[in-house]
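Q: what sequence does this backbone want?
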């Protein structure tokens, strides 16, 4: 029986749940980035502020270890999360992962009260739980959307930026109103509610959904161009590891994530200790780049898919143009930040603009894993996320080492120059080695892309 109406299709419900899921993903991993400003013992940067809960005597290295231990767990479940999703479905993998993440979040205040090492463990456990989410989505995309709509569906993952945009100001309000422990209790509770809705509303494929209409099911199944079911007993590991297009995607995603994590986790500290704004101002300013990033991700993904449907450009041309913008645009902006970033207005303009440019990675490098290997897109994304998570941990150590003795703009200049170099290298790698074609080791049972595109008359995404 149809779920409700033509407007509220199962695919659109899936899109909404994925969007909310990635908003929650970043809410859980970023809430501590702003609360930690109020969790540490008062120093010269916050000595004049009111206390909003218990404070702990953590130095800069220990603070960055709390942020960094998330990545220690995050990298361990990337490949298993992608592979298990290919074999057994995204629904169970993501649902269980977010359930465990909710529990790990709710227990953070208790962990702080018990011992510093329990806080590290809670962050490690959160990383384990959330690590499955990113690589689990491409296998679902391969079953629910057509190749010419991949960018738009993958842009739902960019809702993580929207989650970040809402997390910072809401956390700032909760901290000043209820104290910093409330941030973890409320965000964990929201995640539990989402998990229940996920298991009721979402299924791994149109064939498995009990409430989908026959018309929608046939339309979605006919839109597929390849065999998107992975072999449960065999993964083409050697072919993946010797494939230049696979490595172009992997390294592009790794270096993109390095810059993203650097900005995501360190921006509140920079605003507090270099620009010297209070916690509520910090929350609003930290949110602005994420709003710009999400808006630009949706718009750029729409334009990319429209260009593909109009056949004005080849698939790889669209991917390379978008990826180049996402890397070399921020390189220019971080150069400006390294020179004039001690100015409040310059910092606002640079960070908002840089995040907007970075969002072009969604129709660029991020969508490319489904282009080259839809049956193993989760595994490939998982491999890249392992290295990206390691890079995220390294970024926290780099910041901790550079700012260990002094939190000043002079020290932060080194960090911005590192971001410039990383983005320049990443753009060059993708331009040289990326491909837009399904690789031979993905599947031997597929329709030609041109044939399927001729069969499609109606956009499938909601």
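A:
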């Amino acid at each position: 029986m149809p779920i409700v109406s033509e407007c509220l299709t199962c695919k659109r419900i899936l899109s909404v749940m994925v969007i909310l899921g990635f908003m929650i993903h970043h809410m859980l991993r970023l809430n501590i980035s702003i609360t930690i400003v109020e969790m540490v013992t008062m120093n010269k940067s916050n000595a004049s502020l009111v206390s909003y809960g218990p404070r702990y005597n953590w130095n800069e290295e220990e603070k960055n270890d709390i942020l960094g231990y998330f990545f220690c767990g995050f990298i361990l479940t990337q490949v298993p999360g992608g592979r298990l999703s290919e074999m057994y479905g995204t629904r169970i993998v993501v649902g269980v992962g977010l359930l465990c993440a909710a529990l790990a979040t709710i227990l953070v205040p208790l962990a702080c009260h018990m011992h510093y090492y329990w806080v590290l463990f809670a962050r490690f456990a959160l990383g384990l739980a959330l690590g499955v989410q990113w690589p689990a989505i491409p296998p679902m995309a391969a079953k629910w959307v057509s190749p010419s709509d991949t960018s738009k569906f993958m842009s739902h993952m960019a809702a993580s930026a929207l989650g970040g945009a809402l997390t910072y100001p809401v956390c700032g309000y909760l901290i000043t109103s209820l104290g910093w422990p409330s941030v973890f209790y409320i965000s964990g509770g929201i995640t539990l509610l989402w998990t229940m809705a996920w298991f009721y509303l979402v299924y791994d494929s149109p064939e498995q959904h009990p409430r989908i209409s026959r018309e929608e099911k046939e339309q979605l199944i006919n839109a597929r161009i390849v065999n998107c079911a992975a072999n449960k007993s065999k993964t083409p590991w050697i072919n993946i590891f010797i494939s230049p297009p696979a490595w172009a995607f992997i390294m592009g995603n790794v270096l993109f994530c390095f810059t993203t994590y650097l900005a995501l986790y360190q921006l509140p500290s920079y605003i507090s200790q270099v620009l010297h704004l209070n916690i509520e101002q910090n929350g609003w300013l930290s949110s602005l780049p994420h709003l710009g990033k999400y808006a630009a991700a949706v718009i750029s993904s729409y334009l990319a898919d429209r260009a593909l449907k109009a056949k004005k450009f080849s698939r790889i041309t669209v991917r390379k143009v978008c990826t180049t913008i996402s890397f070399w645009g921020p390189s220019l902006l971080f150069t400006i930040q390294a020179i004039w970033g001690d100015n409040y207005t310059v910092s606002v303009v640079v960070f908002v603009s840089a995040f907007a440019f970075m969002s072009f990675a969604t129709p660029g490098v991020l969508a490319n894993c489904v282009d080259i290997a839809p049956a193993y897109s989760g595994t490939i994304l998982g491999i890249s996320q392992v290295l990206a998570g390691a890079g995220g941990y390294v970024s926290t150590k780099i910041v901790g080492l550079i700012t260990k003795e002094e939190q000043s703009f002079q020290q932060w200049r080194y960090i911005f120059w590192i971001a410039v170099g990383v983005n320049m290298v990443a753009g060059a790698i993708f331009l040289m080695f990326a491909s837009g074609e399904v690789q031979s080791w993905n599947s031997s049972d597929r329709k030609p892309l041109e044939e399927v595109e001729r069969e499609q008359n109606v956009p499938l995404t909601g």
